[in-house]
Amino acid sequence: MLVAAAALSLTACSGSPAPPGEEVEGTLTVFAAASLTDAFTELGEQLEEENPGLDVQFSFAGSSALATQITQGAPADVFASANETQMSVVTAAGLADGDPEVFTRNVLRIAVPEGNPAGVTGLDDFAREDLALAVCAPAVPCGAAAEKVFASAGVAARPDTLEEDVRAALTKVELGEVDAALVYASDVAAGGDAVEGIAFPEAERAVNDYPICVLASAPNPTAARAFVDLVLSAEGRRVLTDAGFLAP
Q: Which tens digits make up the pLDDT trace of 165-191?
């Protein structure tokens, strides 16, 4: 499966099924939040196996960057955002036909390197000047959620780096470049043995809903509907749950 750089064009948002008898083939381009990388890659591979003439290409990045690219004319078939705010950028521009559908949810976790060498215990540690800390930039969903939890907890966070998407923050932890980062629970799962996750109560006040939509001028609307159908199916939910996401 290829991973393509992002860029628009967009038929139904609610995942209406492809008409019976229509072949699912050609190139399908999906713009999706970085946190969906592992789950969507698996679902894309499944769809390719079921449809040998189909080539699924993904552009994974921060939802805000993807929404901007779509409104600027980048060609894509499907958009999946890590929050409803960035999806609204696309719908407000009239680039989606119908209402997007929330297909999963995610919650923040503190990610630390294996063994937690800095002894991080909770959200208060993000105010420590002696630690190297990473959070997402406020413009992207994981950064907006971070701002909410810091405000809720009354923590004056002192991050050393603001990352363009959640996978960039996770990578800093995996490489041992920071002592802790705020990422999603699904990213902690994706980090495997290289990272450990720490839950904190304030995270429940900033749960992100993930909406998905077929774009109104999708170059390949049949394949787009097939992918959205798969994401919304029981199999799609299983893959997402296995990856650490929450049921919608």
A: 999 999 999 999 999 999 999 999 999
